Amino acid sequence: MNFNILTIFPEIFDIFNVGLISKSIKKKLIKINTFDIRENSVNKHNHVDSKPYGGGEGMVMMAEPLAKTLSSIKKRQLGKVIYLSPQGKQLDQKKVVSLASRKNITLICGRYEGIDQRVIEKYVDEEISIGDFVLSGGEYAAICLIDAISRHIPGVLGNKDSYLKDTFSDGLLKGNVYTKPEIFEDMQVPEVLLSGNHKEIQKWRLENSLLQTFLKRPDLIAKKKLSKKYKKLLEELASKAIL
Ligand code: SAM
Fold first, then answer.
1. Residue 164's pLDDT band (cuts 50, 70, 90)
2. What pLDDT score was predicted for residue 243?
3. Would the N or C end of the chain have less CB density within 10 A of its end CB?
4. In a domain, 160, yes or no
5. Does the CB atom of residue 110 touch ligand 1 within 6 A?
6. Secondary structure (DSSP) of 167-222
7. pLDDT exceeds cutoff 80 at 56
8. pTM (2 decimals)?
9. CA-closest candidate to residue 85, choices 109, 64, 53, 59
C-alpha cells in the first residue's frame, strides 16, 4: 500500500523509522512518500500561507502550492485524496478497514487555520477527523490513520487474529488481558485463564468483553443488536459487577 503525504514538516514522519511500520516498509508491504509543500511555494520567500480574506486570526494554507504538490504525484499513484481535518467525518474502525483495501491514499496535512476551501472542493475526496478536538497539524492525525490502516494490511501483523479480535472488530471492547506473574501486588490472574480449559477460557473472554463494554462504553452496547441470550447474560454479569 502506498501512502502519499503532503506536509510542510516531512521530518515528522521519521516516526515511522521504528516499530511495526518500519518493519513493514522494509518488507515492502507499505510505502510512505512525503511531499514537502514548501518546495512548491509560489513566492520568493517560500511562504505557503497567507492572511485569510475577510480578516480574522491566523493564516491559511494557500491553494497553489497544494495544487502543485498534488500534480507532482503520478495520477495512478494518487488514489483517494483525504484531507485530515477536525471538520471531517470522525474516523472509526469500519472506515479504517475500508481504507485498508485501497492501493494508494494521499493525505493532505493542514497547518495554521487550515487549507483554502477551493482545494477541498476541487481535489479532496474525503475529509477525515480523528476526534472532536483540534490538533496543531494534520501530520499527527495522518500518523494515527496510517498506523490503524497498516494493521489491516496482510503480512503487517505476525498474527492476523490480532486485528480480527481487536477492540471494535465485532462492535465490542476486547476485554481484560493478563501476563506473568500470576500474582502481582496481591492481585491474582483470573483462575480460569490458568486452567488450560479452552472452552471455559473462551466463555470467560466473551463475558468479560461484554461486561467491559457495558461498563466503559455503554454506547457500543446500545448500538450492537445483542441476541436475547446475550442480553440476559449481560444483565446477570452487570448485576454481579455492580453488587
Ligand atoms: N482552525 C481550524 C478549525 O477550527 O477547524 C483548525 C486548524 S488546525 C489548528 C490545523 C490543522 O490540523 C488542520 O488543517 C488539520 O489538517 C489538522 N487537524 C486539527 N485537528 C484535527 C483533527 N481532529 N483531525 C484531523 N486533523 C486535524
1. confident
2. 63
3. C
4. no
5. yes
6. TTTTSS-------S-SEETTEEPPGGGGS--HHHHHHHHHHHHHHHHHHH-HHHHH
7. yes
8. 0.95
9. 109
The answer for 46, left when phi > 0, alpha when psi is -120 to 50, beta otherwise, is left
Same domain flag for 100 and 24: yes
Does any ligand 1 atom lie closer than 6 A to the CB of residue 145?
Answer: no
Q: How many residues does the chain have?
A: 243
d(CA 7, CA 139): 7
Domain hosting 8: range is 2-150
In a domain, 12, yes or no: yes
* Residue 65 near residue 48, CB atoms below 8 Å: yes
CATH number of the domain enclosing 63: 3.40.1280.10
pLDDT, mean of residues 31-59: 96
Q: What's the domain count of the chain?
A: 2
Cell of 80: 483517494
Catalytic annotation, residues: 86, 113, 151, 166
| Domain final position from 116, 150, 184 | 150
Q: Is the pLDDT of residue 174 over 80?
A: yes
What per-residue confidence (pLDDT) applies to 15?
97
Quickly state the pLDDT bin for 161 (edges 50, 70, 90). Answer: confident
Taking CA atoms only, the protein residue closest to ligand 1 atom 26 is 85
The verdict on the CB of residue 5 being under 6 Å from ligand 1 is: no
Q: Which residue has the CA at smallest separation from atom 12 of ligand 1?
A: 137
Which of 150, 183, 203 finishes a domain?
150
Pairwise CA distance, residues 175 & 216, whole Å: 10
**Claim to verify: residue 59 and residue 13 sit in the same structural domain:** yes
Residue 144 lies in a domain: yes
171 lines ligand 1 (CB under 6 A): no
